[in-house]
Design brief:
CATH architecture of the largest domain: Alpha-Beta Complex
Strand content: 15-25%
Shape: elongated
Helix content: 40-55%
Structural class: alpha/beta
Largest sheet: 9 strands, mixed
Distance between the termini: 34 Å
CATH topology of the largest domain: Spore Coat Polysaccharide Biosynthesis Protein SpsA, Chain A
CATH class of the largest domain: Alpha Beta
CATH superfamily of the largest domain: Spore Coat Polysaccharide Biosynthesis Protein SpsA, Chain A
Number of helices: 28
Number of strands: 22
Length: 695
């Protein structure tokens, strides 16, 4: 994006913010469906950059959508991240909102020309008439005989003649019956809704209509609107031309855009047609039911009868969760704003909209961006493992990092140089961060983005005050911590480290003759004790693997230099590839792990990998580890303790084999089981839903 374009977008956002403030000022008068100004604001969503030009109906989208935080609204950087690129590179046919100015008018003209071109093309004799396709139109009516008569006529007058019109009488009375009796066309099928369907509203009526369709394609019309004469012809043509299409939507003409927004009437009719934007549709519905058509076999095309006044939005979210619909630039209907008792004007709608919005992401893969201080880092492989657990449970994941890792390893998932780049590319539902200290440093940037975040705290940053401050942040959906630390963190979620790639480990070798130590190159490791113990075991094959850490890159070199003071130093490898570590674990008899006394312990992946490989574990004596590691590991306090344990294991025998078996089974059950990954995914999804509902 060039600087001039960026500056223009920033100016546009300022103007948008001013318009939002004007909207807020008049909200309590314009909307009588909520109690108080704050409830109105909670019912708004943030799809500011893609609403229709040439009419005032964009206010209706904003009404359904200003629950973007004040930080995002006021932050130019955040707007550029989430909307600026979209504004600068609008695809052909997109209609931006009036606040975009000259660019918006140009795009509106392009869209109008596109719709005109498609409809003119469809009128050509060369296109033909695909009348072999039976289309079912579901029309529900409730005691509006005058508008019903016009709606029925608009369907029966379609250029596409092979249709059936299923009219669901949802309690219209004698006047409605008279209108239906007067229609002699055999293509009209009357369905009387029972008392139960009437009580459940429009969703139940539509479902009843769907149960009677026999057409290959289904379209919809409300009794207060008019179907454009060429709509079903356009629908049949589109489904024939793109046979893999399951659902499409078209344009509509709104007779009075200002009235559609709930304001004073008097506006000119306007064309509404927007390109598909999944993020925007999850923030608020901008596609009317009257412009939708789908194949009869579409499994998701049923309406939730518990969702009153927004069942069309809920169905559309499910039906398009895994596959985008076709945006068909053809006019579907004339949308009339003068009918009484419209569903969109009924009370109770804000809470329902908020409920749907809070679970919109559950219909498709959860998008998680893991933002880290440095990544990928060989000494912190648990970060990748836990995110892989979400991926294997259905999430879409990506990574970003503030620093370049000094000990990287290869991964398949995308990695972005900074948080902003990751947000632009993935458009995440939640940002999952590791380490409370890193989250605290990133708070200002997170506030600017306005995207909810979660934090996984580690052993070295259990600063309760810091964690509680982050936990109380309005954008924080939750804290995840090791189970043994939950008592100090009320409200936090417990999560053991997850080992997803354990199946890549080779089968153990017949001969286990290696004493192995794997750890990060950090000063907190008790290196003097490690070397003293290794020196006592100089008759055995000993290997130390160290990973470099950012900011402490020289530690491995100092460790290697210090090892030379001993008589028989072990083999030391810096930044070994993980596959190399797995291969060594296959012949490891004992894995040792040491830290300085008093160091807060986490849950080293090397210990988990060693248990999974069936090695015996020698670990610093700490009762806090017993709930995590079980009872078969071997605690030490001195170098002599380490030597004694190693000698016992090397001697072998049935008890040692049983210890190896218990270690492997413990790892499989407590760190590797698929249900642990599923539970983590479900817990994160629920936390995000709860966060949305609490706003």
């Amino acid at each position: 994006m060039n600087p001039d374009a960026a500056a223009e977008i920033q100016a546009q956002i300022v103007r948008l913010a001013q318009q939002i403030e004007e909207l807020r000022a008049g909200a309590s008068v314009a909307l009588d469906v909520v109690d108080g100004h704050s409830r109105h604001l909670a019912d708004l969503s943030g799809a500011f950059g893609s609403v229709s030009a040439g009419h005032s109906a964009w206010l209706a989208d904003l009404q359904a959508a200003a629950d973007v935080s004040a930080a995002r609204t006021n932050s130019h950087e955040a707007q550029l991240a989430t909307q600026g690129e979209t504004i600068a590179a609008l695809p052909h046919g997109t209609v931006p909102g009036p606040h975009i100015g000259a660019g918006g008018a140009a795009a509106a003209i392009a869209t109008t020309q596109n719709v005109w071109a498609v409809m003119r093309y469809l009128e050509s004799p060369a296109v033909g008439h695909p009348d072999d396709v039976l289309i079912s139109v579901v029309l529900c009516t409730v005691d509006r005989p005058a508008s019903l008569r016009a709606a029925i006529s608009s369907v029966l007058a379609q250029r596409h003649r092979n249709l059936e019109l299923i009219v669901v009488d949802n309690g219209g009375g004698a006047a409605t019956a008279a209108v239906l009796d007067a229609v002699s066309d055999s293509r009209l099928i009357r369905v009387a809704a029972g008392e139960a369907q009437m009580r459940r509203g429009a969703a139940a009526a539509r479902n009843l209509g769907l149960s009677h369709v026999s057409g290959e394609i289904v379209a919809y019309l409300d009794d207060d609107n008019l179907m454009d004469p060429g709509w079903l012809h356009a629908v049949a043509w589109a489904f024939r031309r793109w046979p893999d299409t399951e659902l499409l939507y078209g344009a509509r003409i709104v007779d009075d855009g200002a009235a559609a927004a709930g304001l004073a009437t008097g506006a000119m009719p306007g064309l509404q047609f927007d390109e598909w934007d999944r993020q925007r549709i999850e923030a608020g519905n901008y596609i009317d039911m009257n412009v939708i058509a789908h194949r009869r076999g579409l499994a998701a095309a049923r309406f939730d009868e518990t969702v009153h006044g927004a069942d069309d939005w809920e169905m559309l979210l499910r039906a398009t969760a895994m596959r985008d619909p076709l945006a068909l630039p053809a006019i579907a209907c004339i949308y009339r704003t003068d009918a009484a008792d419209r569903l969109s004007e009924r009370g109770g709608r804000p809470d329902m909209l908020r409920s749907i919005r809070s679970t919109a992401f559950t219909a498709r893969p959860l998008r998680v961006l893991s933002h880290n201080a440095m990544f990928p880092l060989l000494s912190e492989t648990y970060i990748h493992e836990e995110m892989l657990a979400l991926k294997q449970s259905g999430a879409t994941i990506a990574f970003s990092a503030s620093q370049v890792s000094v000990s990287p390893f290869a991964i398949e998932e995308p990695i972005y140089d900074d948080l902003l780049a990751g947000v632009r590319a993935l458009r995440p539902d939640v940002i999952f961060m590791y380490w409370a200290t890193h989250a605290a440093e990133a708070l200002a940037q997170l506030e600017g983005l306005g995207i909810p975040f979660a934090v996984r705290v580690h052993s070295f940053d259990y600063d309760q005050q810091l964690i509680q401050r982050i936990q109380a942040h309005p954008l924080c959906i939750g804290i995840w911590a090791y189970p043994g630390r939950l008592a100090a963190l009320p409200g936090a979620h417990g999560l053991r480290p997850l080992f997803v790639r354990h199946e890549e480990m080779p089968d153990p070798q017949d001969v286990r003759d290696l004493v192995l130590s794997v750890s990060a190159g950090l000063p907190k490791k008790n290196w003097p004790l490690v070397f003293e113990a290794m020196d006592l075991l100089d008759d055995l094959d000993r290997h130390i693997i160290i990973a470099r850490s950012n900011g402490m890159e020289d530690v491995p070199d100092r460790i290697i230099a210090a090892s030379k003071a001993f008589r028989h130093p072990p083999t030391i490898t810096v930044n070994a590839d993980r596959s190399e570590v797995f291969a060594l674990l296959g012949r490891t008899s004992v894995l040792t792990y040491t830290v300085d006394e008093g160091t807060q312990l986490g849950m080293p992946m090397s210990v988990i990998e060693g248990m999974r490989a069936g090695a015996c574990i020698v670990h610093v004596d700490d009762d806090a580890l017993r709930p995590v590691l079980g009872e078969s590991w071997r605690p030490y306090r001195t170098a002599s303790d380490v030597e004694r344990h190693v000698r016992e294991v090397m001697a072998g025998g049935p008890l040692i084999e049983e210890e190896r078996r218990r270690n492997k089974e413990w790892a499989l059950e407590h760190f590797c089981a698929p249900e642990l990954r599923t539970a983590f995914h479900a817990e994160l999804s629920q936390a995000l839903t709860d966060w949305f509902l609490s706003r």
